Recover the amino acids of this structure.
């Protein structure tokens, strides 16, 4: 219940920031988020063997997190 409330608060903050920025900026942000998700999902299987046996159970999640973070930050120029 606490985690669900935290997720709703974070989602509300993101929606509020997009509301403040305007429709054009929010649309660009949404498009970049979709591109980052597609990029991360398409390359995660080729990155999983790089982790080896150190984090075998978590390697898919780690590679998805790293790919989406790097592609989002490079796309937005941060």
């Amino acid at each position: 219940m606490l985690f669900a409330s935290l997720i709703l608060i974070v989602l509300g903050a993101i929606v509020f920031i997009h509301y403040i920025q305007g429709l054009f900026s929010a649309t660009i942000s949404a498009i970049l988020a979709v591109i980052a998700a597609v990029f991360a999902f398409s390359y995660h299987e080729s990155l999983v063997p790089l982790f080896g046996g150190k984090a075998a159970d978590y390697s898919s999640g780690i590679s998805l997190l790293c790919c989406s973070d790097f592609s989002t930050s490079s796309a937005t120029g941060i």
